[in-house]
Design goal:
3-stranded mixed sheet, mainly alpha, single chain, 501 residues, binds zinc ion, 20 helices
Length: 501
């Protein structure tokens, strides 16, 4: 591509990034500090910015630019792939379908809220049916020759497909079910009791985030109802957490999780802004960064040892030992609720949702049978069945507003994190002694070089493969879980399972 045309394209995309950053900032404000009465004008502001962004991404000049890109240049080749995908998606869905789907989603969300309140799935089913039909219609409009679920998967995790995920998740499920059963037969571990004053918790969250490498000159940590991270561009990433007096570890775990997302955002190759490469490669890879810090590091015994030495400064009258922290961090409890799930059962919650939405997309399951199928799978995989629709099929909002194909990214994140963690532990022999000293810089450096700096130059599965070699993520994750939980619950011969504590 001639350098003038390339400069034009980069300039065009750079302005799109600026628009998206402004949109994201308004969205962050909406969930943190915005006064309630501003909702209407915020809707207007976001609506206008979305329209401008849509005009920009469907600009007719993009076809010409795409045609002229030079595949010999890795950045231009990545740009063709990333931009081409989004451009085709936007271009092929007729405006009237976009409109029908938007209406169906907002009706779906309203119907879900009401149905959840009354715990009555049947009243939500017609709205869900409509959202599902239109989502499938949209997938067909984008790529009539492809599996419709592949099309929706690609929106969060390009580079994955039904044919790669189905066997991966089935093997993981078959490994997790017996582990969870074995743990459930043992006495429960103790939780961490007591009230921990919120002022001390905020100091602790900030201190831990700083220790992990979060730069408070490039971001903020604030409160919101549900923790989230949003990257606003170079040098600006916002994370939130929700701290509660009676749940010290849950709140801190949320902070560490979001911090993992933020470190990824801060490590992206911003010098490649305007090329589509200075972005996260996928939702699953993003989630791998948060899970690696939250689970592999944050639930380890060396981390608990370090943390137990920091606590007295913030809670001088509440001594907590490392062993107490470690046991409380790794409590496993079979439950119905995904967002409260422990590390062992979490992926089973996701696999239930993946199998069900895939069946819906393939028309092997009707919307009318969904609540029943949900309860059956919970009984089968997690050993518990919901007594009500509210604690079963209605618990998440995702499907009500058309969020199909997104759930798998959570488990993909755990799988990527397991292999990245295993490769990192092999590359850093001092890893656990450094973690015990509260030194995390080499973990961050390793992740920067293995994952962050690549941005979206390649697809997520290729980035992970290049970083870890030909590892099997299912074996890595199961080995790590058996090693830690097997030892804690006394359910596995853990002699030489892995080197991950
Ligand atoms: Zn996350």
């Amino acid at each position: 591509m001639g350098s003038a045309a390339w400069d034009d394209l980069v300039h065009h995309l750079r302005e799109l990034e600026v628009l998206d950053g402004a949109r994201a900032l308004l969205g962050w404000d909406e969930q943190t500090f915005m006064p309630r009465k501003a909702a209407e004008q915020r809707g207007e502001q976001l609506g206008l910015l979305s329209r401008l962004a849509h005009e920009r991404i469907t600009d007719p000049r993009i076809t010409r630019w795409l045609d002229a890109l030079d595949d010999q240049d890795p950045v231009q080749a990545a740009c063709r792939r990333n931009l081409g995908r989004v451009y085709e998606r936007e271009r092929r869905v007729p405006a009237e379908l976009v409109d029908r789907l938007a209406r169906a989603k907002s009706a779906g969300f309203a119907s879900w809220l009401e149905a959840k309140e009354r715990s009555d799935y049947s009243s939500f089913a017609p709205a869900l049916e409509r959202v599902l039909d239109l989502s499938r219609e949209r997938a067909t409009a984008i790529a009539p020759e492809r599996h419709p679920y592949d099309v929706v998967l690609e929106e969060s995790d390009p580079g994955t497909s039904v044919s790669s995920l189905r066997p991966l998740f089935a093997r993981l499920r078959d490994g997790l079910v017996p582990l969870l059963e074995a743990i459930a037969a043992k006495p429960a571990l103790e939780s961490l009791e007591g009230r921990f004053e919120l002022g001390g918790q905020w100091e602790l969250s900030r201190e831990v985030a700083r220790a992990l490498g979060f730069d408070f000159d490039s971001g903020r940590l604030d409160h919101s109802e549900h923790p989230f991270t949003v990257g606003l561009g170079a040098g600006d990433v916002r994370i939130t957490t929700h701290l509660r007096p009676t749940d010290l570890l849950g709140g801190l775990g949320g902070t560490i999780h979001e911090c993992g997302h933020a470190l990824y955002e801060l490590g992206l190759p911003r010098e490649l802004g305007g090329t589509t490469v200075a972005e996260a490669a996928s939702a699953g890879l993003h989630e791998s960064q948060s899970r690696l810090w939250e689970n592999l590091i944050g639930r380890s015994l060396p981390f608990c040892r370090w943390l137990s030495r920091q606590l007295p400064r913030h809670f001088p009258t509440q001594p907590v030992s490392a062993e107490q922290l470690y046991r409380a961090q790794n409590r496993v409890e079979r439950g119905l609720c995904r967002i409260q799930a422990d590390e062992v059962s979490y992926n089973l919650h996701i696999i239930v949702r993946f199998e069900l939405e895939l069946s819906l997309f393939e028309r092997r399951l009707g919307v009318a049978e969904l609540a029943r199928a949900w309860a059956d799978k919970y009984q089968q995989y997690l050993g518990v069945a919901p007594a009500t629709d509210a604690e079963g099929v209605l618990q998440d909002a995702h499907w009500s507003d058309g969020g199909f194909g997104y759930f798998p990214s959570y488990t993909l994140g755990n799988l990527y994190a397991a292999s990245l963690g295993a490769a990192m532990a092999a590359a850093l022999p001092e890893l656990w002694s450094e973690v015990e000293q509260g030194q995390f810089s080499r973990v961050l450096e390793w992740l920067r070089s293995a994952v962050h700096r690549h941005g979206h130059l390649r697809e997520a599965p290729d980035i992970v493969r290049a970083a870890v070699g030909e590892r099997d993520p299912v074996s890595d994750l199961l080995a790590q879980l058996w090693a830690r939980y097997g030892a804690l619950y006394g359910v596995a011969p853990c002699a030489d399972a892995t080197r991950v504590p």
